[in-house]
Amino acid sequence: MDSNQSLEISVVVPVFNEQGSLRDLYEEIKVALKDCSAYEMIFIDDGSSDDSIDILRQMHKEDSNVRVIRFRKNFGQTAAMAAGFEHARGKVIVPLDADGQNDPADIPRLVAKLDDGYDIVSGWRKDRKDNTLTRTLPSNAANWIIGKITGVKLHDFGCSLKAYRHDSIKEIRLYGEMHRFIPALASWGGERVTEMVVNHRPRTTGVAKYGLNRIFKVILDLITIKFLASFSTKPIYIFGGFGAICGIGSFISGLEVLYKKYVSVEQLAMNRNPVLLLTAMLFMASIQFILMGLLAEIMVRTYHESQGRRVYTIAEKLEMNQEDSTA
pTM for the full model? Predict the structure, then answer.
């Protein structure tokens, strides 16, 4: 991200085949930010196959506040948001969808809420105007699961309309479908997160780009971020834990084999006891998990040391003044 922040607000809009809504959305954003002293709109064309890029080029010619980034192909909403965040120059970054369902009139309210001491204000589509069966119910279930696993209690992780302080997301790297998890990722780093009810409008142009197949991707990404949050600096804990479980299972099944061989009335030979195979498999799995954990530890340490990345974040530093240091 550009460290030379000279603007108040950066509005980031990922675009994929939204030619029918771009003009109206642009005008609504201008009205919403009419009292803002300095702002920019960053439209990221995510490989659109319609006339979206031509409309965006024209808007850029007409308005110097409009910036356009065009991808060579469709990389997805998360990649588009990541590009927008990286190029944003505003002290506050506000992403929103290009389909017109997010209401730009909510932008000033979200930004104002940051002044109450928050770093991220997340929109909550309380009265959502989407298909209940294919969109709303799966989303509600996903929000409940995400809240339980991450410990960040929000009603609507999937709402794109949010307000971020620039510094609150500068260290976050986005992959897959992880843009919806930004509040959780930031919260784990110590940022203060809240939510606010926003207006959600019915789609009037274009078609929805996501369906039920997105749920599977979200679940996989959720597993990924949970692992990164809990074990990214100590992977041996999770691999070693699985190894310990397999080791205990191997020990118990081995005792059963010995019992059947030497104590039981049956006097079952070891090579005829199918549990012997289970014992060997669990023992090998235990060794493999522990070795995987050691390899992961080496990779993590190499990554942090080679990149110079710290395993902590600092909120404030109080140090000796010059007089104290020379006393």
Answer: 0.73
